[in-house]
Fold this sequence. Notes:
By secondary structure, this protein is mainly alpha-helical. It is 76% helix and 0% strand.
Amino acid sequence: MIRYLRTFLPWIAFAVLSTDTEARWGALAALALSAVLLAGDRRAGRGWDELVLEVGSALFFAALVIASFTISPAPLGAYGPAVSVGWLALISWASLAVRRPFTLGIARQSTPVEVHASPLFYRVNAVITAVWAAAFTLDALALAVLYAVAPHAAVAIVAVKVCAFVIPAIFTLRYPRIVRARYAV
C-alpha cells in the first residue's frame, strides 16, 4: 500500500495546495514531486512500462503548470478537481486498453519474480486497475455534478474524494488475498 500512496503523492500535494481559483502552486509542487519520484524510480531500475501512472501524472502537471502560469483566471476553474481525477481515469482506462494495467508495475515491487509472467497475476492487476478506473470515473462525474449544482457542499465534495481513493485502496488490499485463497485450495 505504501507504493500506491507514493504513486499518488503528487495528486495529494495538488489537492492540498490548490484551490478553485489558484492551481499554480499546487500544480508546480505536484510537477516537482512527480519529477523527483520519476527520477528516483528510473534510478531504481523501474522501466517506463511500470511507470504508466507516474508518467501520465507528470504530463498532466506539466501541462497544468504551463496553462496556470499563462492563463488567467485559473484554467480549470472550479472544475479542476473533476478534470484532474478525470485524467487519472483516462490514464487508468488507457493502461487497460493497451494491456498494461498501471497496477502491474506497483504489484511487481511486492511479489516474487516468478509470478510476474502468469496470466493470473495479469488478470488480478487488470481487475484492480479496472476498479481504480471506475472509481476515478465516478469521482470525476460526481465532482463535476457537485461543482455544478452545489459548489459549496464541502462535506459532500470531500466525501466523494475520499471514497474514490479509500474504496479502491481497500479492494486493492483484499482482492489479491481472496484470489490467493481461492487458488490455494
